[in-house]
Each structure stands twice: as structure tokens, then as C-alpha cells.
Design brief:
Layout (H helix, E strand, L loop, with lengths): L5 E2 L22 E11 L4 E6 L12 E4 L4 E11 L2 E6 L5 H5 L5 E5 L13 H4 L3 E4 L4 E9 L6 E5 L5 E5 L5 E5 L4 E4 L7
Parallel strand pairs: 8-13
Antiparallel strand pairs: 1-9, 2-3, 2-7, 3-6, 4-5, 4-7, 5-6, 8-9, 9-10, 10-11, 12-13
Length: 192
């Protein structure tokens, strides 16, 4: 089943990581890893929906940053639950206190992210990147993503305001040059 289209936002996600280095000025300091969906039980735990490709990394994290102000909260206990995580924050001991976190985005610091593998990129690095064919034709800019079970699909917005959907597969995505802000693609028959 295809998930809905996601437009890039000012909030990057945790597709990969920084390997412990300080963020560059153009890089975010925090990466989204989840969304608090509700309190869980009566002792102050919260249930978090995961928004990361590396959920097991969260089991070693000591601090999560919540909300748009990235307020730090020390993790007392964290464990896998269903398709998400259950989290107990230090100092939060009842359901009423936990209710305050409902619908907040949860972040980690970029220094706590999983190191990048070759060919992996944060979504924030791809946001707005120019898309050019291997024949030199400019197609537009990368503005969104559709996550599917098989492979991601990039949404390219053309200068005229139209959309092109490109599967993120090696036959189509030929080169990504983050420093030059360009992605070279090969258009398979029927893509446009």
C-alpha cells in the first residue's frame, strides 16, 4: 500500500546520520524521529509513532527534544511497542503530565544520528535539489516524496508547476551531487 505524498518541510527526518560531527551552518541541529501520539497507561509513559529508518538507535538515546522549541527531556525508559516506542521521561509520573506531549514531534540531536552509508542522504539535503536528465534537460526541483513498500518515489515540480514522479531506483537516479545541488536522472520510457 502506498503511503500519502509527503511534501518536504522545515523538519528533516532521520534517514541517516552525521557520524558525530558538528552540523554545518546549512544543516539542521535536530532530526525528527517520531511523533508522540498519546499517553500510555497511568504512570506517565507515552506512545510514539516512529518517523525514522533506524528505530533501534533510539534505544541508546538518553535525550529526546520535543516540540518546535526542541525542549530536552531525559529518557528514563524506552522500549519497542507494536510499530512504535513507549517512552517514560524523567519527572513525568502520571497520565495528566504525559497528556501534555500529545501530537508533539520528537527529535534527536544530529550528533546522535546513525552515520551515513555511501549513497544515503537526509531528505533535507535533497529538498529543492535541481533535477537534470542525463541528456542535460532541466526537469525542475525535488519537492516531495512518496514512500512505497518497494522504493521511494521523488516528486519533482516543474517550472510550469506540474509534477513528475521519479522512482528512486538505480536505473533512474544516476548521480546525486549534494555540493552542486543537482541530481542526474535517466528517464525510462513512460516516466513523462
Amino acid at each position: 500500500m502506498t503511503q500519502p505524498r509527503q511534501r518536504f518541510s522545515r523538519y528533516p527526518d532521520d534517514r541517516a546520520g552525521s557520524g558525530g560531527r558538528r552540523p554545518e551552518p546549512s544543516e539542521p541541529e535536530f532530526l525528527i524521529v517520531g511523533r508522540i501520539v498519546r499517553p500510555h497507561g497511568i504512570r506517565g509513559e507515552v506512545a510514539m509513532k516512529l518517523i525514522t529508518d533506524y528505530p533501534d538507535r533510539l534505544l541508546d538515546i538518553k535525550t529526546l527534544y520535543l516540540g518546535p522549541q526542541h525542549q530536552p527531556y531525559q529518557i528514563k525508559r524506552i522500549r519497542r511497542h507494536s510499530e512504535g516506542m513507549l517512552i517514560q521521561f524523567a519527572g513525568i509520573s502520571d497520565r495528566n503530565q504525559a497528556e501534555h506531549f500529545r501530537e508533539m514531534l520528537a527529535y534527536i540531536h544530529i550528533d546522535d544520528a546513525v552515520p551515513l552509508e555511501e549513497g544515503e542522504y537526509y531528505l533535507y539535503q535533497l529538498e529543492g535539489i535541481s533535477i537534470v536528465t542525463d541528456t542535460g534537460k532541466a526537469l525542475g526541483h525535488l519537492t516531495g516524496l512518496i514512500e512505497t513498500g518497494a522504493n521511494d518515489v521523488y516528486i519533482v515540480t516543474t517550472p510550469e508547476g506540474g509534477e513528475i514522479l521519479l522512482p528512486a531506483i538505480p536505473d533512474v537516479i544516476k548521480e546525486v551531487n549534494i555540493s552542486e545541488r543537482v541530481m542526474i536522472v535517466h528517464l525510462l520510457e513512460g516516466l513523462i
